[in-house]
Specification:
Elements (H helix, E strand, L loop, with lengths): L1 H9 L3 H9 L14 H7 L3 H9 L14 H7 L3 H9 L14 H7 L3 H9 L14 H7 L3 H9 L14 H8 L2 H9 L14 H4 L1 E2 L12 H7 L3 H9 L14 H8 L2 H9 L14 H7 L3 H9 L14 H7 L3 H9 L14 H9 L43
Helix pairs in contact: 1-2, 1-3, 3-4, 3-5, 5-6, 5-7, 7-8, 7-9, 9-10, 9-11, 11-12, 11-14, 14-15, 14-16, 16-17, 16-18, 18-19, 18-20, 20-21, 20-22
Length: 404
């Protein structure tokens, strides 16, 4: 009977719910995606069903299901009247659990300002930790909800709180290119060089594209923004003192992140601010190898003009020539050779540059194994999540993926 009862609650069939309850359906029965009928009805905004369940003794703070409790489920979808009804019946405004960790983060993530205000008025902890984004401020910043960000800051949200997918709110906003949110956070004292999270710091986040290992995937907000083509965010971070040569993250530094993604204007902006064109570290070892691997000819030329060492060693492919050769970027190969690239340099995945080209493009090279596929132009998307995403997120880059 409970299965029918949950389904009726989920779909808002009030009379069916009442009929099943009269026949003995357990109002607090556990199970299913939502954990219980109250959470199902709350998630879908069925106010009258919520009231009927509460009148029959539904536990307003019952835990379980995807969103942890009914209040978080209602908050996630901005059902203000349901939120109020649950709070009136004693819902714990700071209950932990579920995808978002708490109701405030759920409402903040999805930009429901009135729900955020209602929760704060009832004593929601503005700095509560947990959930996908670590805290409400990071959740709101990630999705560019400026008014929610301001409301949280006015209530004392810690602008430099650590945790969550992006490490801190500034990195989350930088990753997604939300310039006005970045500015609002900086005005409130956000640390432009704070480390942590998927991008390590804000400049790296802005530089990349706007993801996890020690120190953050992008190391810092500048690297994340640089990888994200967010030129204005990059400039804003640099103006606030972001360290253009900060190390860490998947790409080692912002210049490598921007070079990997082919953002010529971001590359130029970083170089103008003193980015070390030969800085070592990260997946590709240096910016020139990153740009060469992805065939970004104009970026390669810009780096060479600024003194990039054409034979610098390190990284996944040992040197830029091998990186370009590995995917057949002929014009990049020519540009590197014109600048004196050593065709016989050893090291890296293919030891030297001739096999790296041949192994992928000579159909007879692998006589007994299937040929490698050409690099796709778009990386596989991340698995769908309950939260809305303003931009698609990229998975960790893998050798041989031509993501951008």
């Amino acid at each position: 009977m409970e299965m029918h009862y949950w389904a009726a609650s989920d779909n808002g069939h009030l009379e069916v719910v009442r009929a099943l309850l009269e026949k003995g359906a357990d109002v607090n029965a556990q199970g299913g995606k939502y954990g219980n009928a109250l959470q199902a009805a709350s998630d879908n905004g069925h106010l009258e069903v919520v009231r009927a369940l509460l009148e029959k003794g539904a536990d307003v703070n019952a835990q379980g299901g995807e969103y942890g409790n009914a209040l978080q489920a209602a908050s996630k979808n901005g059902h203000l009247e349901v939120v109020r009804a649950l709070l009136e019946k004693g819902a714990d405004v700071n209950a932990q659990g579920g995808y978002y960790g708490n109701a405030l983060q759920a409402a903040s993530c999805n930009g429901y300002l009135e729900v955020v205000r209602a929760l704060l008025e009832k004593g929601a902890d503005v700095n509560a930790q947990g959930g996908e984004y670590g805290n409400a401020l990071q959740a709101a910043s990630r999705n560019g909800h400026l008014e929610v960000v301001r409301a949280l800051l006015e209530k004392g949200a810690d602008v430099n709180a650590q945790g969550g997918e992006y490490g801190n709110a500034l990195q989350a906003a930088s990753h997604s290119g939300h310039l006005e949110v970045v500015r609002a956070l900086l005005e409130k004292g956000a640390d432009v060089n704070a480390q942590g999270g998927e991008y390590g710091n804000a400049l790296q986040a802005a530089s990349r594209s706007g993801h996890l290992e020690v120190g953050g995937y992008y190391g810092n907000a500048l690297q994340a923004a640089s990888y994200n083509r967010d030129l204005e965010v990059v400039r804003a971070l640099l103006e606030k003192g972001a360290d253009v040569n900060a190390q860490g993250g998947h790409f080692g530094n912002a210049l490598q992140a921007a070079s990997r993604s082919g953002h010529l204007e971001v590359v130029r902006a970083l170089l103008e601010k003193g980015a070390d064109v030969n800085a070592q570290g990260g997946f590709f070892g240096n910016a020139l190898q990153a740009a060469s691997w992805n065939g970004h000819l104009e970026v390669v030329r810009a780096l060479l003009e600024k003194g990039a060492d054409v034979n610098a060693q390190g990284g996944e492919y040992a040197n830029a020539l091998q990186a370009a050769s590995s995917w057949g970027h002929l014009e990049v190969v020519r540009a590197l050779l014109e600048k004196g690239a050593d065709v016989n340099t050893q090291g890296g995945e293919y030891a030297n540059d001739v096999p790296s080209y041949s192994s992928r493009y000579d159909p007879h090279f692998h006589a007994h194994s299937p040929p490698l596929p050409p690099p796709p132009h778009v990386a596989p998307p991340r698995p769908a999540s309950p939260r809305p995403r303003t931009k698609p997120s990229l998975p960790n880059p893998q050798p041989g993926w031509n993501i951008l």
